Amino acid sequence: MTTYFSKEVREGLAAAHRKALKRRNRLRVQAGEEIFPVVRLKDDGFVVAAEGVPKLRGRVDLFDGTRHLWNCLIVAAEEEGGEMIYEFKRQTPTTSGPALDFARDDTAPAGYLTRSPEV
Fold first, then answer.
1. E-state strands within 50-82
2. pTM higher than 0.70 for the full model?
3. Where are the annotated segments for Disordered (predicted)?
4. Of 19, 25, 65, 27, residue with least CA distance to 45
5. How many CB atoms lie within 10 A of CB 11?
6. Whole domain around residue 78: which residue ranges?
7. How many other CB atoms are there within 10 angstroms of residue 83's CB atom?
């Protein structure tokens, strides 16, 4: 059995769905100094609301709350249903520390003990 809804009801349901996604989603995209909420993440890109977000292009950073996930190079793919879809050209995961320019010794100590001041 198929149920048909009027155009107004479908638009209202779509708006409520977008609002619920925004409320529970912590993903953010940062372009320069500006930060915009991500509606959903896809395998090859991400989706943001079309209204209130300028056309993004180039290098952006993706965050989950305060955790930095990726440095990305993006292009705008298409606008569909009030959402702007962006595709990744490059998606590089961020690391918690600086890049090493040498090989770590497996037997190196985790830390060194300091001398206690003589009393």
1. 58-64, 67-80
2. no
3. 93-119
4. 27
5. 12
6. 26-93
7. 16
Q: Sort 90 into a burial class: Cβ within 10 Å, 0-12 / 13-18 / 19+.
A: exposed
Instruction: Determine, yes or no, domain membership for 111.
Output: no
Place of tokens 């991500």: 38
- Rounded Cα gap, residues 39 and 28, in angstroms: 9
Tokens matching residue 27: 């993903």
> At residue 60, what is the residue type?
V
Q: Total structural domains in the chain?
A: 1
- Do 70 and 91 contact (CB within 8 A), yes or no? yes
Mean pLDDT within 22-50: 86
Tokens of 40: 């959903």
Residue 56 · residue 89 · CB < 8 Å: no
pLDDT digits (tens, 9 = 90+) for 42-90: 889 999 988 888 888 899 999 988 889 999 999 988 888 888 999 999 9
**Residue 36 near residue 29, CB atoms below 8 Å:** yes
